[in-house]
# Entry
Amino acid sequence: MTTTRHLLTGTELSRPELLAVLRRAHELKAQAPADGLPHPHSLDGRSVALIFHKPSTRTRISMEVGVRELGAHPLILRPDEMQLSRGESVKDTARVLSRHVAAVGIRTTADALLEELAAEGTIPVVNLLTDGHHPCQVAADLMTLQEAFPDRLADDGGFDDLHLAYVGDGNNMARSLALMGAIGGLRVTVVSPEGYTLGPGETTATLSSDPQTGVAGADVLYADVWVSMGDEDSDERRAALQGYGIDDALLDAAAPGAIALHCLPAHPGEEITEDVLYGARQRIWDQVENRRHAQKALLEWVLRAGPFADDA
Ligand code: CP
Ligand code: NVA
# Structure
């Protein structure tokens, strides 16, 4: 019997699996409907539940459209529509979902809820962002880096010498970039103010508290919001994060040809300047598009569909 695949943190993927997912994502992008080519239909006739306990623009849009492009039906569920909000257990919710849909994507607060959903159900669970992780975003980010640095890739398509410096709050994005970046071979530095860093034992990323030295030699600077969903928006937090934003001067302090990425939503004037957000050195709007293609490949991977149909 094959085991159920999940994407809870992204560390479920080995380097060959991650790179196979990214290869498939590029293939799906090349076949996107805009080119007039047929949709892959690898999930024809199936349904995928998408539960959002937090707001979302990119994830909601790219998942709903992506699921449909794979031939499946996306079932969007908001918390106020589910009995989960009135006390029904995660265990029972998992059992109900498992009787009706092929997979479930969920954006929620606690990683423990996601883990319970995976443990109690019989279908793949995909993390659409939790307090701890955002693996779907990082899959799209790695795809974007393969496009941006085609001459810097290893023979297998992974990264061996590319250096990404994340600048800002040591949050879910920082953690996922560090964890999944390491699988793909990226060198990751997380530059955060004291009190807002990742735990030293959490990842193999280099931790720094100084933006100027932290970004030295980096090919990619990465920004995220200073105040994540669910965080308390305090004066203290904002004061601590002053100076941990990406502007042209910080890009100049990085490696020649360095680019800027941001998972968005952006707050120009805080974690990124408007000049960088819309300027020539960003690949942010490519990241946005790549969400759809990367997630389609991840859905095929968890469901052993499309090119992953013969996976053990
Ligand atoms: N980057 C990201 O996940 O965006 P949304 O919160 O809009 O989905
Ligand atoms: N760290 C942010 C990411 C938004 C996509 C948050 O969790 O709100």
The chain has a mean pLDDT of 96. The pocket of phosphoric acid mono(formamide)ester (ligand 1) is lined by residues 56-59, 129, 137, 263-265 (CB under 6 Å).
